[in-house]
Design goal:
Strand content: 15-25%
Shape: elongated
Length: 418
């Protein structure tokens, strides 16, 4: 025994290190890096949205400081650094990252050019309407709550998620020995696919793909080939090739210019322009006479060609040598019953449908209990209304409130309540 009454034990250092690393790995996998297949969120995302709901930051109300949200999350739910919380909040407000943003930000929240957001003391936020749908009915016993890290309050272990958030906005994360990278999809197509699965539980993945043909990236662009989509839809893994959107315009002087109006998902627009400029300087793109970035909120990169230059040659070089063509390696991995599981598109949708069934069942049971409690009270009021004179007589004849209550219960078989 040591002086502070802590017991010592001996053991092989390899065994101790192995045990400690496994504990750490499971903590990262379950509590940090991987999303839950039911609501599509990691704990930090869930905590930010729940804290904003508790702060009353609804889409119909005024914006409030992001610093207040970060402080609330750190104080009650997330005992880690403030940068991880604010980075999560910012990411949920960026329309070029989230197919359907969950945070409505006011102020500088960065840009597709890679500019970082302003400090949280300068920005404001509130929930979007679609985020409120993910939190809807959370106070009606639809999900389980667990004590927070200091056991002063509780937090939801999962959100009711009335929309399939995991596939709607996608997710990415690196755990220990595994990673996830899920692309966003079109919400209308997802809802149709969920409806098909509910109506026809034995439907095939091919039938789902007729409704949900593939990813829908917020930055636009096109997908080159379907082999990567077919692969991840069936197995949970695949490589999707993405290309930016390019058009050509004729100039009055007889020249042509290439217009880049959409870029691949996760591509940095400023880096793309710099890369094209470097290729022009190195005379690899020798057919380019001018390069301009005319982007505002929308992308417009102008590549002006020399007179007589064939535009197809330059376009092919842009696809080959820049991020204008890039790949998205899909790994559809998420936590199912707190265990990491790689799944195909049908399995992911089935997990969501099962979750919603449980949420709706629990919500219905909660509302039934509430209605029964209310009905019980109204039945007592009805008995009192039908025997009002006798109630008044018994109450006046009683010495105190307790005696009056017992006399009324004895005569009219009323319950004493909870």
């Amino acid at each position: 025994m040591t002086d502070n009454n802590k017991s010592l034990f001996s053991g092989n250092i390899s065994d101790i290190m192995q045990s400690a690393y496994i504990d750490y790995s499971m903590s990262v996998i379950v509590s940090r890096a991987l999303p839950d297949v039911r609501d599509g969120f990691k704990p930090v995302h869930r905590r930010v949205l729940y804290a904003m709901l508790r702060e009353g930051l609804l889409h119909s109300r005024a914006y409030d400081k992001c610093a207040g949200v970060v402080g609330e999350v750190l104080k009650n739910y997330h005992p880690h650094g403030d940068s991880s919380v604010y980075d999560t909040l910012v990411r949920m407000a960026q329309p070029w990252v989230m197919r359907y943003p969950l945070v409505d930000g006011q102020g500088n929240f960065g840009s597709v050019d890679g500019d970082s957001a302003a400090a949280y003391r300068y920005t404001e936020c509130r929930l979007t309407k679609i985020a409120e749908e993910l939190l809807k009915d959370i106070d009606e016993d639809t999900v389980d709550f667990a004590p927070n890290y200091k056991e002063s309050s509780t937090e939801p272990t999962v959100l009711p998620s009335s929309l399939p958030s995991l596939l709607m906005n996608g997710s990415s994360g690196i755990a220990v020995g595994m990673a996830t990278n899920i692309p966003p999809h079109n919400l209308g197509e997802l809802i149709d696919a969920v409806t098909l699965l509910i109506d026809e539980p034995n439907c095939t993945i091919e039938q789902i793909m007729e409704i949900l043909p593939g990813p829908d990236f917020p930055t636009g662009g096109t997908i080159a080939g379907r082999s990567g989509i077919n692969s991840y839809m069936h197995t949970g893994r695949g490589i999707v090739r993405m290309r930016g959107t390019i058009t050509t315009e004729e100039l009055p002087n007889g020249k042509q210019q290439i217009i880049i109006s959409e870029i691949p998902y996760n591509a940095n627009r400023a880096t793309l322009v710099t890369r094209i400029a470097d290729l022009v300087k190195e005379k690899i793109l020798d057919g380019v006479s001018d390069l301009r970035d005319e982007s505002t909120e929308t992308t417009r990169i102008v590549v002006e060609l020399k007179l007589g230059e064939i535009e197809r040659v330059t376009i092919n070089k842009l696809f080959k040598l820049t991020a204008l063509e890039s790949s998205f390696g899909v790994i559809l991995l998420a936590l199912d019953k707190r265990r990491p599981r790689q799944m195909n598109i049908k399995e992911a949708l089935e997990c969501y449908v099962d979750h919603r069934r449980e949420v709706i069942l629990r919500r219905t049971q909660f509302r039934l209990r509430k209605a029964e409690d209310r009905a019980h009270i109204l039945e007592g009021y009805k008995i009192a209304q039908d025997n009002l004179d006798d109630f008044v007589r018994i109450i006046r004849a009683s010495a105190n409130r307790i005696e009056a209550k017992s006399n009324l219960v004895a005569k009219y078989t009323l319950s004493t309540g909870k």
